[in-house]
Amino acid sequence: MKKASNDLEVRPVIEADRGEWLRMRTLLWPDCPEEHPPEIDTWLARRPMDQEVFVAARGDDRLGGFLECGARAWAEGCRTGPVGYIEGWWVDPDLRRHGVGAALLRAAERWAQARGYSEMASDADVANDVSHAAHGAAGYEEVGRAVLFRKSLGVYTLPWAPIDRTAQPAFERELRRELPKGHALFGKAVRAIARRVDRDDVLFEVGGGPRVATVRLTYREETDPARPVTNIHESFEAFRTTRMREDADEEKR
Ligand SMILES: CC(C)(COP(=O)(O)OP(=O)(O)OC[C@H]1O[C@@H](n2cnc3c(N)ncnc32)[C@H](O)[C@@H]1OP(=O)(O)O)[C@@H](O)C(=O)NCCC(=O)NCCS
To answer: What percent of the chain has a predicted confidence (pLDDT) above 70?
Structure first.
């Protein structure tokens, strides 16, 4: 395998790299730390054909950088498709400016070439000057800048509010901890989607939907299958037009 200019080995990620890949992924994307372990485990178990992860190995079980790449059907400014795409790129601070990042990029480009792609694309935050410089030095030309937007669709009415993505796993863990055998949600896949801001009521999507359930969390392990108290609604819309409306009316009074 190709050595980076400071003798780090650049190679595809292996099972034994799990901890180091997780460490660096969390540094690159610190906003949702709880999402990394399941994503890494799923990736290592499946090794998707249209993605690859390259790492730079320090030679002592530790890694010094990683790059996640994949195929995208289309990318801004490209003339062909599918194209190779740089999804994540990280070098530990103590190794920067030694050619490790460039070596990871070369590995990704070879991977894309071998799949028959004739272009490689990438993106970076508008303010990430270092990334812009590193892309530029490796021959990437800027093809555009983007301003990102969001708008709330006003689906929720107080006292109900959506649960932030980063807070979802904590509610899901708590529900699993509380549920006794025989409870309507015991053993079911759930996803926390909203909560009452004034109480411990949480709305969960059940089994991938369309059913949802409101649960009054108790913050202790229950033994009575009737607790935590749970109401199942056939769909989110059913919840919205009954329970959420009633709670909103109650709040106004
Ligand atoms: C971007 C990053 C991966 C580059 O890794 P690196 O190993 O330092 O890159 P290299 O040493 O291969 O640099 C190659 C060239 O890029 C340019 N470059 C890299 N870092 C630079 C910096 N801080 N300032 C100016 N130019 C820089 C230089 O031309 C450099 O060549 P030189 O050192 O011979 O001048 C690394 O800085 C990093 O992990 N940053 C934080 C995470 C990040 O922003 N990732 C990109 C997300 S899009």
So the answer is: 98
Q: State how far Cα 180 lies from the chain centre.
A: 30
**What does the DSSP 8-state code read for residue 156?**
-
Query: Using CA atoms, how far apart are residues 11 and 33, in angstroms rounded to an integer?
Result: 25
Which domains, ranges and CATH numbers included, belong to the chain? 9-137 (3.40.630.30), 160-252 (no CATH)
- Rounded Cα–Cα distance for residues 129 and 111 (Å): 26
Query: Residue type at 102?
Result: A
How far, in Å, CA of 62 to CA of 30, rounded? 20
Q: Which residue's alpha carbon is nearest to atom 42 within ligand 1?
A: 90
d(CA 250, CA 159) in angstroms, rounded, equals 9
The per-residue pLDDT for 242 is 97
User: Rounded to whole angstroms, what are the CA distances from 21 to 48, 63, 86, 154, 223?
Assistant: 17, 8, 16, 38, 40
The atom of ligand 1 lying closest to the CA of 102 is 12
Cα-to-centroid distance, 77 and ligand 1 (Å): 23
pTM of this structure: 0.82
